[in-house]
UniProtKB/TrEMBL annotation:
The chain crosses the membrane at residues 12-35, 41-59, 80-99, 170-193, 240-259, 265-289, 296-315, 327-360. It comes from Proteiniclasticum aestuarii. Pfam families: AI-2E_transport. The keyword Phosphoprotein does not apply. GO terms for biological process: transmembrane transport. The keyword Transmembrane helix applies. Keywords: Cell membrane, Membrane, Transmembrane, Transmembrane helix, Transport. Its main location: membrane. It is a multi-pass membrane protein. It is found in: Cell membrane. GO terms for cellular component: plasma membrane. Belongs to the autoinducer-2 exporter (AI-2E) (TC 2.A.86) family. This is AI-2E family transporter.
């Protein structure tokens, strides 16, 4: 039987795709390395585009606020300046609150450590008093700060060169990161100023080189992606601020120490879906535990109560409904994203999963309509 040209072409495409896929699976590290090399010089542009996307949500609101200004460029410039000043103000307030408070916290911890080690030793002695086999071992442990200091100095002296190399590496990374952020901020300002013109250029290129129907589909998907990401960012930031304020107020009411520090940490880390607040919980528990182990246990109780309230009432209303992704798929997305790409994967997993969820839902609905199947069979 002679195959027609269309069938032969399809078979060749399938075979070539299978070979290419098999080769890609076998050489994943090489492919990731190539992509990393290509993307590394583009990091400032990626940061700028991401920052412009987030700031654009606020800039659009400001442009509506300054609607009486007739000159479009002046209105755009004023909105961008106010958005950037707001960002700087928030960062400054966070630093002014967190850094002095953290300095006082570590100073208090330093004063409490001698008593803490003595109390820990006494508690262990009482706990292990009925086990003579462990008593001799416990007596040989030196809990004094002098011994701990000597041990740390030995580690530092032995690993001095490694420590120096590590310091240089960290300083280089910090400088590189600061430059990338600065360049990214400049890119973000240019993108925000000229976003309509950039959009027109992209559309012209797409329509020039791709079929019209395909471009219409791509633009429709891009609108969906933009809408979901904007709702996710707005909802996640709102939810983080609400949760942080709940922690500050409740900790102040019940007399917990470090209420402001824990509240700010919760606000910052709650931006990361599901797992973020638990990072703040661990830090808050440690800080309070050094001050009072009993209060630290009560802090855990307070944390889980507030998390339950946040999970049952705040997150579904503020974030969940806005992105349209069921709670089960939110959890799956976070687990998969975190397993593949860490914190960045967790941040991007939920909106990306929401986009796929909406697209698949639409496609399934269209296919069911085309098949004209009785709705009672799948409702």
């Amino acid at each position: 039987m002679i195959l027609d040209k269309k069938t032969v072409k399809s078979l060749i495409t399938i075979i070539f795709s299978a070979i290419l896929f098999a080769w890609a699976l076998k050489h994943i590290p090489f492919i990731l390395g190539v992509f990393g090399t290509i993307l590394k010089p583009m990091i400032p542009l990626i940061i700028g585009a991401s920052l412009a996307f987030v700031l654009n949500i606020y800039v659009k609101q400001l442009e509506r606020f300054f609607a009486k200004i007739e000159k479009k460029k002046l209105k755009r410039a004023l909105s961008i300046v106010v958005a950037l000043l707001t960002l700087v103000l928030i960062l400054a307030l966070v630093l002014l609150i967190v850094i002095p408070e953290m300095a006082r916290t570590f100073e208090n911890i330093g004063k409490m450590l001698p008593g803490f080690f003595e109390d820990a030793k006494t508690w262990l002695e009482g706990l292990l008093g009925s086990f003579p086999m462990f008593q001799d071992y416990l007596n040989n442990i030196d809990f004094s700060l002098e011994n701990i200091g000597e041990t740390l100095m030995d580690i530092i002296m032995v690993g001095g060169n490694s420590l120096a190399d590590f310091t240089v590496s960290v300083a280089t990374s910090l400088f590189s990161g600061a430059m990338n952020i600065l360049l990214g901020l400049i890119f973000a300002i240019y993108i925000l100023f000229d976003k309509e013109n950039l959009g027109r250029q992209v559309r012209r290129i797409l329509y020039a080189y791709l079929p019209e129907k395909r471009v219409d589909q791509l633009l429709g998907i891009s609108v969906l992606v933009s809408d979901i990401f904007q709702k996710f960012v707005t909802g996640q930031l709102t939810e983080a601020v609400i949760l942080g304020m709940m922690f500050v107020v409740s900790m102040l009411i019940f007399g917990f120490p470090y209420a402001v520090v824990v509240g700010v940490l919760v606000t910052l880390t709650a931006i990361i879906p599901i797992v973020g607040a638990f990072i703040a919980m661990a830090i808050g528990f440690f800080l309070i535990f050094v001050n009072s182990p009993v209060q630290a246990l009560w802090f855990l109780v307070l944390f889980f109560v507030l998390q339950q309230i946040e999970g049952d009432f705040i997150y579904p209303k503020v974030v969940g409904n806005s992105i349209g992704l069921p709670a089960l798929w939110v959890l799956v997305a976070v687990m998969v994203g975190g397993g593949l790409y860490g914190i960045l994967g967790i941040l991007l997993a939920v909106p990306i999963a929401s986009v796929f969820y909406v697209l698949i839902k639409r496609n399934v609905g269209n296919r069911l309509d085309d098949k004209d199947i009785d709705m009672r069979k799948y409702k």
